[in-house]
Amino acid sequence: xxxxxxxxxxxxxxxxxxxxxxxxAETEIVADWGLxxxxxxxxxxxRQVLLLDESTLQFVALQPGELQENITVRxxxxxxxxxxxxxxxxxxxxxxxxxxxxxxxxxTVRPGLREELRDRRGVLTRVLQxxxxxxxxxxxxx
Length: 142
Fold this sequence. Notes:
- By secondary structure, this protein is mainly beta.
- Helix content is 10%, strand content 36%.
């Protein structure tokens, strides 16, 4: 168990490709699916929920949601999480499947961003247990 205090400081879904993320105050994170109503959610995927830490956004001078993350976390370096680790986000339980790789699409946000985010793009997870997540909810490594 990690004693570090961390919390949800952003929740985002997207309805269509190439549109801004939609901020939410709360959402249901559904087992073997992802965030309810998110276009990227799908059964069997290893990429159901993207976690990103607030400090990474600050490092690249972007706002929560601008990197297409589903959950922005304050107080935890999500990039230090390893595949197989479990993270409780509110009442939901997620399992880290691996780092999110940087891609060329980042260059549409800002030229040079792909290189700035190397090894800091966040982690991808799959949902093990359904639960509600709200802004301010704790995020704990189990």
